[in-house]
Write a structure and sequence with these properties.
By secondary structure, the chain is an all-alpha fold. The protein is built from five helices and no strands. Keywords: Membrane, Transmembrane, Transmembrane helix.
């Protein structure tokens, strides 16, 4: 994730708030993944399930805590970035393909869950 944000920052004129942007992108992916789970729960188990305000609050707190402890709390992830940068280019390319596949899967899964939820609610 950091490499993607770093690359786009270099294109757009600088690495301003790169850490923040990487953290925000991870939060977005987590929210889309959790929203997909809620949608599939509604589709497969309980068609009358409605996400309540308390669900948003609890999940928001959990996502922010996860983001804080994985990105913002300590600089361990920066050590991982340095280690990945030292790997051979072939290994980094495989890792990048795997990473992009996960991102595409999460976004595609979220879109599919919205479509299926729409079809269920339409009928």
């Amino acid at each position: 994730m950091y490499k993607l944000i770093d690359y786009t920052s270099a294109i757009s004129g600088g690495a301003f708030l790169t850490d923040f942007k990487a953290s925000l992108a991870m939060i977005a992916l987590e929210v889309w993944f959790i929203a997909s789970l809620f949608n599939y729960y509604t589709i497969l188990i309980d068609e009358n399930f409605i996400v309540k305000k308390i669900h948003f609050i609890i999940l928001g707190i959990l996502v922010l805590l996860l983001s804080y402890f994985t990105f913002d709390n300590n600089g361990i992830w920066k050590d991982y970035i340095k280690k990945f940068d030292q790997l051979p280019e072939r290994v980094n390319k495989k890792g990048s393909i795997f990473f992009y596949a996960i991102i595409i899967f999460i976004i595609g899964n979220f879109i599919l869950s919205l479509y299926l939820l729409y079809e269920i609610r339409k009928n």
